[in-house]
Specification:
The chain is mainly alpha-helical. It folds into 2 domains: 140 residues, no CATH class; 107 residues, no CATH class. 45% of the residues lie in helices and 9% in strands. It contains 9 helices and 6 strands; from the N terminus they run ααββααββαββαααα. The strands form 3 sheets. The protein has a two-stranded antiparallel ribbon. β1 and β2 form a beta hairpin. The chain is elongated and about 80 Å long. It binds zinc ion. Zinc ion binds next to loops. Zinc ion (ZN) binds next to loops.
Length: 277
């Protein structure tokens, strides 16, 4: 799901880090790096809106374990801006908390979980120049946190998961997750299988990207768990109606109409049910 772009900018997070720095020489080096940091932030935003962040080359450990990445700042120093100055020190922590609190739903799984951490869309181990860029810091739930999954990043356009701040709106406004309702015994609630079926007019790359996103965050299995918890209630409600159309009109259609976004698990489930009953 899409969430609104952070109100804080790279200028804000960098200023907090500079204010938090205790040594003047270090402050000065951060000030000297500011233009380059802003330039990198603009590049990130432009490529993110095009869906081509994969074009940014990852920093791989070559001859030096800790190379200079930007201005005269080393990889370890850029990571420390995030780890220490933004996440731990008081001056930065307020901004960290603001970014984390900007959404009460995890955008990667469509709100199955609540955000617990900020997750680097481009992992800081390979893209340390974006370690404190608000657009790169996504509020994510524990199950979706990518950094627990070995700092993976996309190397092709197809392999990119959706970017909740920057990706184009059709990913969030059009339905590409569907549910199949399978009921073997008419006296018992059935089960739901969720699958992807992106609109046929989408490009092959966009279709591949939502499939990747669906698999990466295990959305099929996680949606099925939610649906299994819901179906008994729905089934009990259904028994109160002698007319299936009336049941659809009063119990299914309002849920579908009021869902917060196109691929919300409950909306997808209820559409699956509506089309089967
Ligand atoms: Zn999540």
């Amino acid at each position: 799901m899409q969430i609104s772009r952070p109100e804080l900018s790279i200028t804000d997070t960098l200023a907090a880090c500079i204010n938090g720095a205790s040594r003047d020489a270090y402050k000065q080096r951060l000030v000297m790096a500011e233009n380059e940091i802003l330039r990198q932030a603009e590049l990130y935003c432009r490529l993110g809106e095009q869906g081509t962040l994969y074009q940014i080359t990852a920093l791989l450990s070559g001859s030096s374990e800790d190379p200079v990445v930007l201005a005269d700042l080393k990889k370890s120093e850029l990571i420390r801006l995030y780890e220490y100055y933004l996440r731990k020190k008081k001056t930065g922590r307020e901004l960290y908390d603001t970014l984390l609190g900007s959404s009460d739903k995890c955008p990667f799984c469509g709100g199955l979980g609540r955000p617990r951490n900020l997750d680097h869309y481009l992992p800081k181990a390979f893209f340390s120049q974006f370690s404190i860029l608000p657009y790169n810091l996504i509020p994510a739930c524990r199950d979706c946190n990518m950094e627990g999954k070995g700092d993976a990043y996309a190397q092709t356009q197809e392999d990119q998961i959706l970017h909740p701040f920057l990706d184009r709106s059709h990913f969030f406004e059009q339905q590409w997750i569907f549910a199949r309702y399978i009921q073997e015994d008419s006296d018992q609630p059935g089960v739901f299988e969720f699958y992807t079926s992106p609109p046929s007019q989408w490009s092959d790359i966009d279709k591949a990207r939502v499939n990747k996103h669906f698999c990466e965050f295990d959305i099929g299995a996680r949606y099925s768990v939610k649906a299994a918890q819901e179906i008994s209630d729905v089934f009990a409600q259904r028994r109160l109606f002698s007319c299936v159309d009336e049941f659809k009109r009063t119990n299914l259609e309002p849920v579908i109409a009021n869902a917060s976004f196109a691929n919300y698990w409950k909306r997808v489930m209820y559409i699956g049910l509506l089309n089967t009953l």
